[in-house]
């Protein structure tokens, strides 16, 4: 199947208002009114890219991967069923909350809720950052990336490549096992890291990444994080594989956020998959 991009991300929050303040005042997203116990966040032309749902738990709730159209979604369901994966149709309510024309969902081997969709709705008017972020790098590259920690990185890699059609960007064995996957030129839209290394046996969303065009915007956001005493979980640094200049902070839902600039793009015609010796060229101290 031909997944185009990471279209949207759903989070669960015990304190959605705290996440809203963080997402707008610190990260610069635009809050968009939601339904009942949901709040949406806009970062580009789309109605929203991130949704937070009030819950009795914190963390990643669902991951929305975009397909070209209804035919592609039907074909994807057939492919899933050939692999023994039964995808369920979204309810009308789920379609309304996500603002998409069609969606099916299933669980990956670690138990994460994967959603395949088509027909995203555009937002009204221009994206207007809650502070002064000019724009985020999205479009056909998707909203950014997600990094999921799970006990069995190899099983996740097999499922996402063999069944969902992602391509390997690179892998890492030390200091922890990781696999980085792409589905468009963005270096990785999803990566899997070894959960037990991080001291947690349950699958969890380690972080999501948002990218801006300007390195100074990363620096200004870093200053803001320090001024507001948000916990910095990794200092400024540059990743060895996607070359992202970024830092990590802990959001009020426990999930870390990576805010970065300068990520490389992959051309499948020339890209060589390698095993990288470590995650960072410099920095990212924790
Ligand atoms: Fe990242």
Automatic annotation (TrEMBL):
Signal sequence annotation: none
MF terms from GO for this chain are: 3,4-dihydroxy-9,10-secoandrosta-1,3,5(10)-triene-9,17-dione 4,5-dioxygenase activity
| All copies of domain VOC, residue ranges | 5-119, 142-262
Gene3D superfamilies from the entry? 2,3-Dihydroxybiphenyl 1,2-Dioxygenase, domain 1
Q: Which CDD domains match?
A: BphC1-RGP6_C_like, BphC1-RGP6_N_like
- Pfam families, alphabetically? BphC_D1, Glyoxalase
Q: What class of enzyme is it?
A: oxidoreductase
Disulfide bond found in the keyword field: no
Keyword terms, alphabetized: Dioxygenase, Oxidoreductase
Identify the EC number(s).
1.13.11.25
The entry's protein name is: 3,4-dihydroxy-9,10-secoandrosta-1,3, 5(10)-triene-9,17-dione 4,5-dioxygenase
């Amino acid at each position: 199947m031909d997944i185009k991009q990471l279209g949207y991300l759903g989070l669960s929050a015990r304190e959605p208002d705290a996440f809203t303040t963080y997402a707008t005042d610190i990260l610069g997203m635009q809050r968009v009114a939601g339904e009942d116990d949901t709040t949406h966040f806009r970062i580009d032309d789309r109605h929203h890219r991130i949704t937070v749902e009030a819950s009795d738990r914190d963390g990643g709730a669902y991951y929305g991967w975009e397909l070209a159209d209804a035919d592609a979604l039907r074909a994807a369901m057939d492919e899933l069923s050939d692999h023994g994966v039964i995808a369920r149709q979204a309810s009308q309510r789920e379609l309304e909350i996500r603002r998409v024309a069609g969606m099916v969902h299933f669980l990956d081997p670690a138990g994460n809720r994967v959603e395949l969709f088509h027909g995203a709705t555009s937002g009204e008017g221009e994206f207007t950052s809650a502070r002064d972020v000019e724009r985020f790098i999205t479009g056909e590259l998707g909203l950014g990336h997600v990094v999921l920690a799970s006990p069995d990185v190899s099983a996740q890699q097999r499922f996402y490549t063999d069944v969902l059609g992602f391509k390997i960007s690179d892998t890492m064995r030390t200091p922890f096992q990781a696999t980085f996957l792409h589905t468009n030129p963005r270096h990785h839209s999803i990566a899997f890291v070894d959960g037990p290394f991080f001291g947690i046996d349950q699958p969890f969303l380690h972080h999501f990444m948002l990218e801006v065009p300007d390195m100074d915007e990363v620096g200004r956001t870093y200053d803001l994080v320090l001024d507001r005493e948000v916990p910095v979980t990794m200092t400024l640094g540059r990743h060895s594989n996607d070359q992202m200049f970024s830092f990590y902070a802990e959001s009020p839902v426990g999930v870390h956020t990576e805010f970065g600039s300068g990520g490389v793009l992959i051309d499948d015609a020339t890209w060589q998959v390698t095993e990288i010796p470590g995650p960072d060229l410099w920095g990212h101290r924790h």
